[in-house]
Hints:
Layout: H1 4-15, E1 20-27, E2 35-36, E3 48-55, E4 58-63, E5 67-72, E6 78-82, E7 91-98, E8 104-110, E9 117-122, H2 123-131, E10 135-136, H3 144-153, H4 159-162, E11 169-170, H5 174-184, H6 197-216, E12 257-261, E13 264-268
Bound molecules: zinc ion.
Amino acid sequence: xxxxxxxxxxxxxxxxxxxxxxxxxxxxxxxxxxxxxxxxxxxxxxxxxxxxxxxxxxxxxxxxxxxxxxxxxxxxxxxxxxxxxxxxxxxxxxxxxxxxxxxxxxxxxxxxxxxxxxxxxxxxxxxxxxxxxxxxxxxxxxxxxxxxxxxxxxxxxxxxxxxxxxxxxxxxxxxxxxxxxxxxxxxxxxxxxxxxxxxxxxxxxxxxxxxxxxxxxxxxxxxxxxxxxxxxxxxxxxxxxxxxxxxxxxxxxxxxxxxxxxxxxxxxxxxxxx
Length: 274
Ligand SMILES: [Zn+2]
């Protein structure tokens, strides 16, 4: 599933091409499960994508006329950029655009499993939607103090499972949460109320390491998953210390344990994490 580093990779690649004026929009037979809202979506044709931002795992296409496209990639979504019409299987939405120097650019949303969503919203709806997401774990606002205060407010959660809550930790996903706990030396099952100020600080610090390493490697690709706007896979897997690993990459000796926490595969080192 694309998490913050993967979404950031796609965002940065599309940003280089902006502004993009949409000349034509094409939809697959199955686009209805992706496009929201179904009843009152406006026609994106004619809009100019002037910038692209990100909050958590949400891509925010800023267009003129107060129009926003909000894109959530779900389990297997990605965007492709091409000079030619995109014919890849599972391309559900495709914009033919004019970019810089009158260059024709095709921007396509590809999603084999179709759990992703694309919202065509006017400003007010878009802002309300974005307000539902908590602090982005990749920003300076994600401090130890913040982590500690949220953990204090909800003291009975299991740390790793709680880190997946987008209302508080926008952008955090399953592999990131496992890696954060590993690098902070915290067992995924520890209760949030038992995390000290110092440990909360450590969580915020190691989050930067996990995210930076992954973004530098253009994201993370697990068995046939995520790919970027050129269809390339990410190479971040080499930086993982516990997730999908047999031996812990921190102590280099202890076999990694896999448990299921709130239905999600969770990895930890019994030696390094207390
Ligand atoms: Zn270890």
